[in-house]
């Protein structure tokens, strides 16, 4: 298994042996090979949340999920969230909203509506800093705690589920999440709705890969996503899928008791 805790010491030992080979008259090529492998795997592990390279992550329900998927929405709440909520209600679907603390402060009534309508709110940091992947453990903890505290003050629940901005994990994020006792939630079906401008392509991308147990990543921050949802929800219904919250899909607790 590709796990940082196992591979890091292995790379250290291999690196030492390879540099000794170079020092004692051999070639330094092996040192270079080990170095490049270590950098490559660490970068891959940091950006592919499904690997769980630095810390355990949930990204789908592998077994016993017949017909169930979990729609998730990041970066809200925003003014588009109310339309997302209206559509979810019309199709009797539940979802998980990974909210940014600052956005909850800006739209507390929408955050309350999310919970009142039976959806789950997860933590997506206080400010969603672009530098999230470079924060020290104490700064990761500060981002997580500040967001959780705002969510608690707004909806009366402390989230247990956390989705890292940009899906980045690294040793600081792993330790931070261990400290706050939260569970990292990734995704298995990525809509790319913030990158792809054509709604058709977003819709087709999600449908093409769709399978039971999927955790589907959207952002409740644009009309584009709302429009895709208008087509996706009837499609899910027609195909016999039902969207449930991530905690429901994975049998986890969404909030601290
Ligand atoms: Zn985000």
Automatic annotation (TrEMBL):
SUPFAM superfamilies: Glycoside hydrolase/deacetylase. One of its GO terms (molecular function) is hydrolase activity, acting on carbon-nitrogen (but not peptide) bonds. This is Polysaccharide deacetylase family protein. One of its GO terms (biological process) is carbohydrate metabolic process. Pfam families: Polysacc_deac_1. Signal peptide: none annotated. Keywords: Membrane, Transmembrane, Transmembrane helix. The chain crosses the membrane at residues 28-53.
């Amino acid at each position: 298994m590709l796990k940082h805790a196992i591979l890091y010491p292995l790379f250290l030992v291999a690196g030492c042996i390879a540099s000794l080979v170079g020092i004692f008259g051999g070639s330094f090529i092996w040192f270079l090979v080990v170095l490049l492998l270590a950098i490559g795997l660490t970068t891959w592990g940091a950006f592919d949340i499904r690997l769980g390279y630095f810390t355990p992550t949930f990204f789908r329900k592998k077994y016993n999920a017949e017909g169930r998927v979990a729609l998730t929405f990041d970066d809200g709440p925003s003014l588009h969230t109310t339309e997302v909520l209206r559509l979810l209600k019309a199709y009797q679907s539940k979802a998980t909203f990974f909210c940014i603390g600052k956005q909850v402060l800006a739209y507390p009534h929408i955050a309350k509506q999310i919970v009142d309508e039976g959806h789950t709110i997860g933590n997506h940091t206080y400010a969603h800093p672009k530098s999230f992947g470079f924060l020290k453990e104490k700064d990761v903890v500060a981002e997580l705690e500040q967001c959780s505290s705002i969510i608690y003050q707004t909806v009366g629940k402390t989230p247990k589920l956390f989705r890292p901005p940009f899906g980045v994990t690294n040793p600081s994020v792993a330790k931070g999440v261990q400290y706050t006792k939260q569970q990292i939630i990734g995704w298995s079906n990525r809509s790319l709705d913030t990158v792809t401008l054509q709604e058709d392509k977003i819709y087709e991308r999600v449908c093409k890969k769709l399978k039971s147990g999927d955790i589907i990543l959207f952002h409740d921050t644009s009309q584009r996503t709302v429009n895709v949802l208008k087509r996706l929800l009837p499609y899910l219904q027609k195909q016999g899928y039902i969207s449930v919250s991530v905690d429901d899909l994975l049998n986890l607790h969404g909030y601290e008791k």
